[in-house]
Amino acid sequence: MLDEFLTFINNKNLINSSDKVLLAVSGGMDSVVMCDLFSKAKIDFAIAHCNFGLRGEESNEDETFVKKLSIKYKVPFFVTTFQTAEFAENEKVSIQMAARILRYQWFEKLRVQHQFDYIATAHHQNDVLETVLLNLTKGTGIAGMHGIQIKNGVIIRPIWFAEKEKIFDYVVENQIIWREDSSNESNKYQRNLIRNEVVPLLKQINPNLEQTIQQTVERIAAVEEIFYQEIEMLRKQIVWSDGKVFFVNYKAIQTLSQPIVKLTELLKLFNFTYQQCQEIFASFDKEPGRTFLSPTHELVKDRTELVITLKNLTSFESRVIEANDTKVRTDNFQLDFEIFDRPEDYKVPTAKKYACLDADKVRFPLQLRKYKEGDWFCPLGMNKKKLISDFLTDQKVPLNLKKETYLLTSNGSTMWVVNQRVDDRFKVTDKTTRILLIECFS
After folding, report:
1. Which residues form the Lysidine-tRNA(Ile) synthetase C-terminal domain (predicted)?
2. Whose CA is closest to 245, among 399, 379, 98, 137?
3. Is residue 26 part of an annotated ligand binding site?
4. How confident is the model at residue 91, as a pLDDT?
5. pLDDT in tens, 258-298
6. d(CA 47, CA 77)
7. In the predicted model, what is the mean pLDDT of residues 171-192?
8. String of b and e for 169-208 (b: at least 16 CB within 10 Å)?
9. What average pLDDT does the chain have?
10. Residue 59 annotated as binding?
11. Between β-strands 319-321 and 291-293, what pairing exists: parallel, antiparallel or unpaired?
12. Distance of CA 362 to the CA centre of its chain
């Protein structure tokens, strides 16, 4: 199997000799075999393990087992624990979807932080078969027909070529120990029902079902490549981003052939379903402000664009800022603080990312928090109050971006609508002797 593994990764150009790969390892047979193959192939790798906290002590024993595996192979080990059930309930998604969101977000964070080239998962031919059948049962587009891809961006599946039976033969031959997940036997999970009940029946019709599906998948993938070339050209023309927020020109979509199919492909990255895309398309001729939610993102139909933001999966807690603090970080930005005597020729910066304030009017500690309905301030240049919700509407800030607006307050009064405008009461005047300069880095 090692020779097949090396041939496969070379033929599919999955890994170069200089690449560092992060292996997603559960402790089950498939991921343990993947570790062994990587070790024997002398590929630079590390192990990442997710403890989803769904099977009590058994989950903790899996974690211990995988840690010992990393010691055996003398590779770095990363582990994290998720409150998966709580996350699934809060986000109104299935346990399987919750686990998927949590683990891939964490894997990507590790990859960037530790400069791995790829993330490898241990999906194989039987997983591909089960995925195709599951997608067909629930309804799917062209992507669902290819099942699990060999390579998807930085995600690679280096044992995609192998059948489960071949993997089992490998562990027997090499006397490899693994952990058996007791939940794999439970048919309450849809994938297990496909694996344990449906596939055996289909193999009575076609004993070579895995190979047949693999050939079909490869043919569909070729057709899909042609289709996605068109989608990517379209994406470059009508989708743009500032790094955190995505915008889609929906007026252009209305002129396309098969617009809902193409809209679905454009929004698939944000986990919107075909049915939701039908509703989104139907909203194009209606008033702006309609909101749609996927498990991971929020989409607002604005005046001429769809505005898409990552859902706030963890609620932001307010931050207290003391007089000696020079930096404050959130998940979305960083604020740098500096207090200094005003130079004679000082010019107040006008860019939105700056707040230039009269330091003697500021009372510490400050508070950084999200804006809420009813908040008000006196926008720079005005000597009267204005609701921040009205100000944001005047600035044509889409609904989902309004929710991500932060305020910096002093003694309960808003000093700065972050990245928008300062409060007139705290502005620098001719009488200002000391300046508080705040810069926002997104």
Report:
1. 366-438
2. 399
3. yes
4. 84
5. 999 999 999 988 989 889 999 999 999 998 889 999 988 99
6. 5
7. 78
8. ebbeeeeeebbebeeeeeeebeeebbbeeebeeeeeeeee
9. 90
10. no
11. unpaired
12. 38
pTM > 0.85: no
Q: Which residue has the tokens 């003391």?
A: 322
* Structure confidence at residue 317 (pLDDT): 67
CB 50 within 8 A of CB 80: yes
Contacts with 315 (C-beta within 8 Å, 6 or more apart), sequence order? none
User: Is 30 flagged in the annotation as binding?
Assistant: yes
Q: Specify whether the CB–CB gap between 235 and 266 falls below 8 A.
A: yes
31 assigned ligand-binding residue: yes
Minimal CA–CA distance to 154: which of 22, 274, 258, 275? 22
Maximum distance among all alpha carbons in the chain? Answer: 88
Instruction: Give me 86's structure tokens.
Output: 């709580």
Per DSSP bridges, beta strands 239-241 and 246-249 are antiparallel
CA–CA dist 442, 435 (Å, integer): 23
Contacts of residue 432, defined as CB under 8 A and 6 or more positions apart, other chains included, come to 342, 358, 359, 360
Q: Map tokens 């998940």 to a residue.
A: 331
Q: How far apart are alpha carbons 404 and 258 in whole angstroms?
A: 34
Q: How many helices (H) and strands (E) does the chain have?
A: 16, 22
